[in-house]
Design brief:
- α1 packs across α6.
- Helix content is 17%, strand content 30%.
- A hairpin with a 2-residue loop joins β8 and β9.
- It folds into four domains: 160 residues, Molybdenum Cofactor Biosythetic Enzyme, Chain A (3-Layer(aba) Sandwich); 52 residues, Molybdopterin biosynthesis moea protein, domain 2 (Alpha-Beta Complex), CATH 3.90.105; 84 residues, Molybdopterin biosynthesis moeA protein, domain 3, CATH 2.170.190.11; 74 residues, Beta Barrel (Beta-clip).
- The longest helix has 19 residues.
- The chain contains six helices and 26 strands.
- The strands form seven sheets. A six-stranded mixed β-sheet has the order 7-4-6-5-9-8, with no helix packed on it. A six-stranded mixed β-sheet has the order 16-13-17-21-20-18, with helices on both faces. A five-stranded mixed beta barrel has the order 22-24-23-25-26.
- The protein is an alpha/beta fold and 409 residues long.
- Bound molecules: ligand LQZAQKY5 and molybdate ion.
- Molybdate ion binds next to loops.
- Its EC number is 2.10.1.1.
- Pfam families: MoCF_biosynth, MoeA_N.
- Catalyzes the insertion of molybdate into adenylated molybdopterin with the concomitant release of AMP.
- It is an enzyme of class 2 (transferase).
- InterPro entries: MoaB/Mog-like_dom_sf, MoaB/Mog_dom, MoeA-like, MoeA_C_domain_IV_sf, MoeA_linker/N, MoeA_linker/N_sf.
């Protein structure tokens, strides 16, 4: 006896994201200290402020001579060269009227000097005399604390550190930084048809391509993949795999088994969860994408069809992982202009895998590869998604469509 298929309540893409965000906002990541040099794309967990003024000494912005401005009542002017200050050197006394010190870019401007003239406007008369033909309109000296005063904000809590931030922290010799721990993710791919790498291909069987896709996307989005398993369509194996992950993850991502088939074990699991967020989204592919919360862990049940898995990850899991790390999605939402008519229609919005080109006045979007949910021929090449609105009319060339530009593409 077969049991009847469940009716599912469908929600929109935006409502799905809204409930994801509400659930993600209830989670908090612990913090840890990491080496500044290894902190790119980690998210800072506390404000970090300047430990000193920057620069810490008056610094020359040019190669030239440090002089006293009031010496220049007329031009050209000859001054006695009393020293040389390459970058990195100190100078042990103030200069006085009639003196000049040769100085290089980044050099310590000696006390007494209030102007640095550029080398190009000077001429050596002999070993210790320089003639200066003009003063530039500015002093070419960076004052102490010009860029940062001690206590100024360097990196605000919840900022994603980038190479510029690493440079900034290094300038203050801040060698370690407090960051949020990476979100811990467990990946469970389900499917009795899935082979392990190296196994022989036979009728009915396929290699697991979604597992490696999800893993790579998780890593790209700052997660730590604490577990990666592949199981057959067997609810006992699924229960075991989930039990093994108890307390070890913030998010569990499953793949396959979310539809209404006899072996759709994730769909059943979702029904018994503490809170079902959704199990039907008004989109194609991936309408059966499911999310639920159980024992404090957020679960995403991605569709097994590769195109739907890819789309579902970017629209929902990427969104969750980024928000968990206090960041917005890296998918840039914008409007794209369709470069060719699209004739298929659907009751749900169709999210197509496409390619975009930025022109002088718009973003051109178009299909790449097949649009079938099971077709993986465009996963490498797709650089964007664009939305064909639901309804029974064809979508003409030139239509302006909701578009997401994909990161790292
Ligand atoms: N009676 C209905 N059948 C289906 C419906 C429906 O509403 N009623 N929805 C269809 C749609 S749409 C989708 S999408 C799929 C969703 O299926 P599942 O998410 O449950 O996934 P599976 O059935 O396990 O697999 C679907 C497809 O993908 C292949 N697959 C699975 N895992 C992997 C993997 N790790 N790597 C590569 N490919 C994978 C699998 O072999 C199937 O071909 O359901 C439709 N059916
Ligand atoms: O919801 Mo499915 O991914 O369209 O084939």
């Amino acid at each position: 006896m077969f049991t009847p298929v469940d009716e599912r309540n469908s929600i929109s893409i935006d409502d799905a994201r809204k409930v994801i965000k509400e659930s993600v906002d209830k989670l908090t990541l612990k913090t840890e200290n990491v080496k500044t040099s290894e902190a790119a794309h980690r998210v800072i967990a506390e404000d970090v402020t300047a430990t000193n003024d920057f620069p810490t000494f008056r610094r020359s912005g040019v190669d030239g001579y440090a002089v006293i401005k009031s010496d220049f009542t007329d031009f050209p002017k000859q001054l006695k060269v009393v020293g040389n200050i390459p970058a990195g050197a100190d100078f042990d006394r103030p200069i006085v009227s009639g003196e000049a010190v040769r100085i290089m870019t980044g050099g310590y401007v000696p006390d007494g000097a209030d102007w640095v003239v550029m080398l190009e406007t000077t001429k050596m008369i002999n070993d210790d005399t320089v003639e200066i033909s003009e003063l530039q309109h500015k002093d070419n000296i960076t004052p102490i604390g010009d860029y940062f005063k001690k206590g100024d904000m360097l990196l605000e809590k919840d900022t994603e550190i980038n190479p510029g931030g690493i440079s900034l922290l290094s300038a203050f010799d801040i060698q370690t930084v407090p960051v949020y721990k990476k979100p811990k993710v467990g990946i469970i791919t389900t499917g009795s048809e899935l082979l392990k790498p190296g196994e022989k291909i036979v009728n009915g069987k396929i290699f697991n391509s979604n597992g490696p896709l999800i893993k790579a996307l998780c890593i790209e989005n700052g997660a730590e993949v604490v577990s990666y398993t592949q199981i057959k369509d067997d609810s006992n194996l699924l229960k075991q795999a989930i039990e093994d992950l108890q307390g070890k993850t913030d998010i569990i991502i499953t793949d396959g088994g979310v539809s209404v088939g006899d072996y759709d074990i994730i769909a059943d699991l979702a029904k018994s969860a503490d809170r079902l967020l959704f199990n039907k989204i008004q989109m194609r592919p991936g309408s059966v994408t499911t999310a639920f919360v159980d024992k404090g862990t957020i679960y995403f049940g991605l569709s097994g069809n590769p195109g739907a898995c890819f789309t579902g990850f970017y629209l929902y899991v990427e969104y969750a992982l980024r928000h968990l790390q206090k960041q917005t999605s890296r998918c840039i939402e914008c409007l794209g202009t369709l470069n060719a008519e699209y004739t298929k229609t659907n009751d749900y919005d169709r999210i197509l895998r496409g390619k975009y080109k930025i022109t002088s006045d718009h973003i051109d979007v178009g299909r790449v590869g097949g649009d079938a949910s099971g077709n993986l021929n465009n996963l490498q090449r797709a650089t964007c998604f664009f939305e064909i609105p639901r309804g029974d009319s064809i979508t003409p060339k030139g239509s302006v469509l909701r578009t997401w530009l994909l990161p790292f593409k």
